[in-house]
Amino acid sequence: MALTIIKPRIRGFICTTAHPAGCTSNVNDQIKIATSEQKDIKVPFRVLVIGSSTGYGLAARIAAGAMYGAATIGVFFEREGNESKSGTPGFYNTAAYHQYALENDLISLNVNGDAYSHTIKEKTLDLIHNRLGQVDLVIYSLASPRRTDPETGETYQSEISPIGESYRGKTIDLNREVVNEVIVEPAQNEGIRGTVKVMGGDDLELWANALLDAGLLADGARIVPFSYIGPSLTWPIYRSGTIGRAKEHLEKTTKAINERVELIGGSALVSVNKAVITQASAAIPVVPLYISLLYRIMRERKVHEDPIHQMIRLYKDHIGPNTKPNLDSEGRIRLDDLELDKSIQAEIDTAWPQIETDNFVSLTDYETYKRGFRQLFGFEVDGINYDNPVEVEADL
């Protein structure tokens, strides 16, 4: 037992502490939302989520369990809490979901380690073989700044840069809370290559091949990696930059994987999701300001979705048991349809040139963005007394 009073330690887009009670409350709120969409299915639903502890991966796991009673395996890389330091938010998120699963007689299996490594892949495959037999769905939601290739031992680093020419635009300085101009120099070949190696499709292909070769994908199984496109406003730093090059590689790889999965009656499909608040997105110039403005407009129009709402829609309309996905011309699932609605983007394009330090709080939903970022780490959650000591250790 390790009872400790935990306070936020935040600078910019980095927080070095996490609050167990706040994280648990966040997970329970998502469970409640997903449970309201509960489905009565007559077939087993076994789901592997690679990158399951935060954001869309966490929401995908919660939705599978709460909506369908799915047996889930979560793969994540998180730090446990101890007497001297709190754990990471993903560890507490996972512990909260695991507790829910135990209380509701759901299978919840957890693998904590580097998902890029052969060791963690083998451990996960053994768990599937011994506990589930096969899986019906694989969700791929990894987000990491670096990756060590298990075949070569080389470590690659991703970077957030434009390609071809410098990027100049406005962004929020999250430390000083001012709007200023940012200039990002274009990536060199090594930066592009590294980003593709980290965020592209190489690791997804290793997972898919390992599962297929071991016979662990059930007939009709689906593999669904997550991606993002975004509006033309963010393309110079995102879709047309190093990250976009990696996403293009991911989508191309997914199409190649689909050819193999089709042989067992299944499919591999990219799901293009909406922009949401994450620690990773907070580090991308322009994106925090864009999300703050997007959230205001979507909330005013009552079409805003958090990750759990997106994942509920993903299962209900596209990849849940007995569903047929609706695909765009490139064969992708599009959950970003509301974000990219022409009238919403037109309003963003009109407001964007007007935004400056003196008015960005009133023109955007920055306060919600700021609070949402803190809530990722379990802080500023309603109903939590942060002056009380909490248990920082948890059992998975």
Please describe what this structure looks like.
It is a single chain. The chain has helices at residues 20-35, 55-68, 89-103, 118-132, 189-199, 202-213, 242-261, 279-282, 287-300, 307-319, 342-351, 360-363, 366-375, and strands at residues 3-4, 10-11, 14-15, 46-50, 71-76, 108-112, 135-140, 146-148, 155-157, 167-173, 178-184, 217-227, 267-268, 271-272, 333-334, 390-391. It is an alpha/beta fold. The model has no long low-confidence stretch (mean pLDDT 95). Helices cover 40% and strands 17% of the residues. It starts with a strand and ends in a 5-residue tail after the last strand. It is globular, with a radius of gyration of 20 Å. A hairpin with a 6-residue loop joins strand 8 and strand 9 (155-157). Strands 4, 5, 6, 7, 12, 13, 14 and 15 form an eight-stranded parallel beta sheet that branches. Strands 1-16 form a two-stranded antiparallel sheet. Strands 2-3 form a two-stranded antiparallel sheet. The protein has one domain (3-146, 156-163, 181-282, 305-343, 378-391): NAD(P)-binding Rossmann-like Domain (Rossmann fold).
In short:
The chain is of the alpha/beta class.
